[in-house]
Amino acid sequence: MSRYPPYGGATSIQSLNEMWAQVKQGIDRIYNMEGISKPQYMKMYTDIYNYCTSVDPARNCVTQPLAKKGKGEARGAKDTGGGARFVGDELYTKLKDDLKARVVDLKRGADGKVGNDLLEYFYTHWSRFRKCSVTVDGIFNYLNRNWVKRECDEGRKNIYFVYQLALNTWKEHWLKPHQAQVIPALMSEIERERRGENILKSAYLKVIIDCYVELGFESDDGGAASAMAASGSPAPASGGSGSRGGSSRSHVGGGGGGSGKGGSSTDRLHFYEEMFERQFLDETEQFYRVESRDFLQQNSVTAYLAKAERRLEEERKRCSDYVHRSTEEKLLARCMEALLAAHLSVFWQEFPALLDADREQDLGRMYRLCSHVQQPHRADAAGGSDSLPVNGLDRLVELFEQYVADRGLEAVKSVSSAVLSSEGQDAKLYVDTILGVHRKYYNLVLQAFSNNRRFVEALDKACMKFINRNELTKLAKNNQKTPELLARYSDALLKKGSKDNVVGDELEDTLTHVMTVFKYIEDKDVFQKFYSRFLSRRLVYNQSVSEDVESSMISKLKENCGFDYTTKLQRMFQDIGASRELNTRFQDFVTKDGAALGLDFEIKVLSSNAWPIHISQGSGVTIPSELERCYTTFDRFYKKTHEGRKLQYSYNYCRGELITNFTKNRYTLQVSTYQIAVLMMYNTETSYTVQDIAATTSIEPQVLQQVLAILVKAKLLTLSSAEAAADAAELAPGTRLALNQDFKNKRLRINLNSQLKCESKQEQEQTSRLVEEDRSYMIQACLVRVMKTRKEMKHQKLVAEVISQLSQFKPSVQQIKKNIDTLIEKEYLQRKSGERDKYEYLA
What is the pLDDT of residue 246? Predict the structure, then answer.
């Protein structure tokens, strides 16, 4: 290896003292901030290089860097085989002593200073010392790369690269002696900043605190074995005290030159954590404990929440300004402990009041702050109790759920009487009340609580509570009233001519809101029964606002409850489509047969297992002769095309139109089959007794009374003056009803086809009976399905499994037990011998 010639071309080897005297002059200029020129920098570097590569007079050879020696070889000993030795121990010692003298001198200058004076002195002289040490490290680069590295590789203690030697000297001879004064001064400045007072520049504090990070190595450790300088000679740097040559190196805390010590970042932060961070965190927590306690005693909770949020933001900024980034998480945790966790009970007490006042912004702030409290709550030192886990949102979620449930119950209670007392029951008022409560608190969850999953679940639970069991269900003595009213509301939306009709996108949005309420209903099977009943009337009477909207609603139900839930509803639509084709073929049949019907006749053939149409024994009627021909002709056509099928006519679902020929204006009357049978009698006579009408039409007396009452109320039929004055609740058999020859009405098209009360009651009873029957079948099917899989199962587990699997309703334990007994009678199950609470499946 060829060596660089000495600066100026000299070939003689200078003695250590001569060389050091010249190098020290340059070092003095650097640390005195007087600066050095490029030639001076290179002269110093070359002198050190020449010394380290000097000829050993005893061996008359040039020393060369050698491979690593074994531990058994004497350090600095001559190689008897003609090798060389490393030179640098004496030079390193002189540099070490010089740095110590400089730092001790700086230390004396700081003695007696406190507070801001000490911190300003620290900042000024530490910044200068650190910057100058970078330049000195560059000058001694060859010593670093050879002698220092060799010593470190061999494990020698207390040997550092030059830059690190300077840092360690500052640490041992300046910082540690003044530690007791520096830390209180730093804490005082930070507290003054928290109180809003003017302090030193943040940049000053950052440099001082970063010093603790950069000095994060143990003094008794050797140099960094991992540091390795680049090979080759340094290029001269530009003049000035900050210039340096040689290869670049990285430094902890963003420092300048010099090779850093190896080790993880966690190890490097140990000094910073012990000397600064621990006390900083303790004093921060104590400061906020005192401040929060005093502030809450004099101000409102909402004002405190705003202040706490502002304080947390200030601490985040403080970490970015001058505290090391590793402290941020620990600092915020301690702040939240003092500012939030210690006062959670106060927040919880205030939470309902904020909900009452609709303080959305304050609620959002409370949510954001409490959501940060996830760590264990540390017990006070005086208490000495174990730490208890605290989650700031747990209690808020519970309070929110209870609050929404209470407000929902109150809202429903305020309209319950009006809903049940109104004619036909005001389903719209009831559903709108429920939606109003849900919409209000859903928006609150969305805005204030950031749509947090736990608050969404709390809202769902609260809605289920007040929707399924409330004051209205108590007054009606029926826990299944909510699904019935929701089905009625849906019918009003989807029926033509309803006062609740909306159109277009608004209708689609309203149906989405209906599904929102539907989601919370426990008895979904009850809704299905009532909905199918109302749908059947809309389809039979062609009253649907749109088939597309009807299909959209069924799709929503299918998405929520599955395919089986809507199978019958879809079958109803299929029957209507098939009936259209059937009527077309029937008209062709009539035309070919030559049997003129004499009137427009349309019929719908419906599957009895899909449609909720009840044909009771009391629903019969004698068809007028004008209509009888239509029925007989269709019977003949249908039996010819569908052999083996039986038709049953549901007269209570039939309707028609009659035109008055006895009045000045021709009125079109929309009437039921019963009303047609009664009114067609007046084509032969102008008055009949009730008894005569009953004998001719064969209508059940209870039904006939309501049919005649509608016609009398519409003033198509009139009573004698004496009978009208009697105002009896029912018409006597001998009461005579005459056709009103002077009938007048503002409308030319009059709808008299309103549902009879007796029919409504029968349908209600039928629906309730079908619900109970279907529930029994579903429970039994679920029991068999579970037992077929498990083979054996204890009673309690079987009951729990059935409850979890049935989604359309929540069966009672008594219902499940009753159906278990039924399956035992049918020999699907048996009780296990010797274990009465255990069942076995029988294949």
Answer: 37
Distance in angstroms between the alpha carbons of the first and the last residue of the chain: 95
So what's the pLDDT on residue 635?
Answer: 86
Global confidence as pTM:
0.75
Comparing 392 with 737, the larger pLDDT belongs to: 737
- Lowest mean pLDDT across 83-92, 169-178, 200-209, 678-687: 83-92
Q: Which domain, by its residues, includes 837?
A: 760-841
Asked whether residue 802 falls in the same domain as residue 721, the answer is no
When pLDDT is averaged across residues 251-272 and rounded to a whole number, the result is: 54
Helix, strand, or coil here: 355?
helix
The H-or-E segment that residue 655 falls in is strand 655-659
Are 126 and 211 contacting, i.e. CB atoms less than 8 angstroms apart?
yes
On whether both 187 and 211 belong to a single domain, the answer is yes
What percent of the chain clears pLDDT 70, i.e. is strictly above it?
Answer: 83
Contacts with 467 (C-beta within 8 Å, 6 or more apart), sequence order: 408, 434, 482, 517, 520, 521
Cβ-count burial of 60 within 10 angstroms (0-12 exposed, 13-18 middle, 19+ buried)?
Answer: exposed
Phi/psi-derived region of residue 423, left when phi > 0, alpha when psi is between -120 and 50, beta in every other case: beta
pLDDT computed for residue 64 by the predictor = 42
- Strands 388-389, 376-377: pairing is antiparallel
User: In the predicted model, is pLDDT for residue 726 greater than 60?
Assistant: no
**Which helix (H) or strand (E) is 334 found in, with range?**
helix 328-339
813 contact partners, CB below 8 Å, separation of at least 6: 799
Distances, alpha carbon 124 to alpha carbons 106, 118, 205, 328, 742, in Å: 11, 10, 11, 27, 114
Three-state secondary structure readout of 628-649:
HHHHHHHHHHHHHHCCCCCCCC
One DSSP character per residue, 790-834 reads HSEEEHHHHHHHHHHH--S----HHHHHHHHHHHHHTTSEEEETT
Q: What is the pLDDT of residues 478-495, one digit of tens each?
A: 888 999 999 999 998 998
Residue 175 and residue 210 share a domain? yes
Number of domains in the chain: 5
Helix spans in 111-256 (H): 115-139, 141-143, 149-153, 162-170, 176-194, 202-214
Helix axes 701-713, 757-790, angle to 10 degrees: 130
Distance separating alpha carbons of residues 192 and 688, to the nearest angstrom: 105
pLDDT of residue 375: 55
